[in-house]
Write a structure and sequence with these properties.
about 350 residues; alpha+beta; D-Amino Acid Oxidase, Chain A, domain 2; seven-stranded mixed beta sheet; FAD-bd; monooxygenase; monooxygenase activity; FAD/NAD-bd_sf; flavoprotein
Length: about 350
């Protein structure tokens, strides 16, 4: 976006190349945020080609397998189509000039320069100087500490598994999941399944547990049947069509991590030489807003810099005033959804919430 405004910028990326790691499942892009960003980048048509409108469908079930809520727009009427994260990344990278992208740069520290700006130090021993440092380095941001001592708070444990080529290899499970996603909620647990554009299905388990719960399970020391048995024990008494999602997952695909969020309303005093975007600025529970808000952050920051050329203080003050107000409102809603989604009676709560 900055390049479109004629403002030189360099992106330092820790990954060694675009295919260095899997990008995860799919996400829905919202008209007022993620889709707006793509439109301003001239990528609306490309997004329409890559998006999967059918992926917007969602079913919410209780532990008995009863559907308590669903969202299934008629063809052509949906507003938040899904796109695979890998496809979205390719679209965004298509708008970054090759000369402005530095792969394989793992940031290890920053240094305030006496004349203003920052020196960035990387793991390979190199460094680079900048007038404005934009921290887009995620929930565990190193750059955030330059602005605030706020730290992410632990919320839950999260496990992800994978079913490749689901329609051919696991047709009954694929049919049960459908074209979009489902969530089965209750007992402080969330068992989810989401289809991706490549025919795979990602199965997830979210549990209200302390930050060391995943480590204590020692899943990495277990044979796959032990992993499956341990997960079945979590969902004792749940409908067999739900626990069949676990049985269908490909052996060895389990990955665990903790879910965290910054305190709602996290703010700081603006500085003319550093700012934040995305999870670095406003890490939220993963309920569908994070990537959308990050993309909108980039658009709004670019506009602020273009509208206040030569005055970084004014640009950052303008950007952060809008971004922090917007993020606080969105984060409040995300926190509410996260609380409801892992409540003992989560399915009924969400049914009432959505009317």
């Amino acid at each position: 976006m900055l390049d479109r405004h004629g403002i030189p910028a360099t992106v330092y990326e820790r990954d060694t190349d675009p295919g260095a790691r899997a990008q995860g499942g799919s996400l829905d892009l919202h008209p007022e945020s993620g889709q707006r960003a793509l439109d301003e980048l001239g990528l609306a048509d490309a997004f329409a080609t890559e998006a999967r409108p059918e992926g917007e469908s969602l079913r919410i079930l209780d532990p008995s397998g009863t559907i308590v809520g669903k969202h299934a727009p008629e063809p052509g009427s949906g507003t938040r189509p899904e796109i695979d994260r890998g496809a979205l990344r390719k679209l965004l990278l298509s708008r970054v000039p090759d000369s402005a992208l530095r792969w394989g740069h793992h940031l290890t520290g920053t240094e305030q320069l006496p004349t203003g700006g920052h020196r960035l130090h990387f793991a390979d021993g190199t460094h680079s100087d900048c007038d404005l440092l934009v921290g887009a380095d995620g929930g565990r941001s190193r750059i955030r500490a330059l602005l605030t001592d706020a730290q992410p708070v632990h919320l839950s444990g999260y496990l992800s598994m994978f079913i490749a080529d689901a329609d051919r290899r696991r047709p009954r499970v694929a049919d049960f999941v459908g074209p979009g996603s489902l969530m089965a909620l209750g007992d402080n647990l969330n068992l989810g399944a989401q289809r991706s554009g490549d025919g795979s299905i990602r199965v997830s388990v979210t549990i209200r547990a302390d930050e060391h719960w995943i480590d204590r399970q020692r899943f990495d020391t277990m044979e796959w049947p032990e992993v499956v048995a341990r997960l079945h024990a979590l969902f004792s008494g749940w409908a067999p069509e739900l626990t069949a999602l676990i049985d269908a997952c490909d052996p060895g695909t389990l990955v665990g991590r903790t879910i965290e969020a910054l305190p709602v309303g996290t703010r700081w005093q603006p500085r003319p030489d550093v700012t934040l975007v995305g999870d670095a600025a406003h890490l939220m529970p993963p309920v569908g807003d994070g990537a959308n808000q990050a993309m909108l952050d980039g658009v709004m920051l670019a506009h602020a810099l273009a509208d206040n050329r030569g005055d970084l203080a004014a640009a950052i003050t303008t950007y952060e005033a809008e971004m922090l107000d917007r993020a606080e409102e969105i984060a409040e809603g995300a926190a509410q959804m996260e609380q409801m989604g892992l409540a003992p009676d989560a399915a009924e709560r969400l049914k009432s919430f959505f009317g």
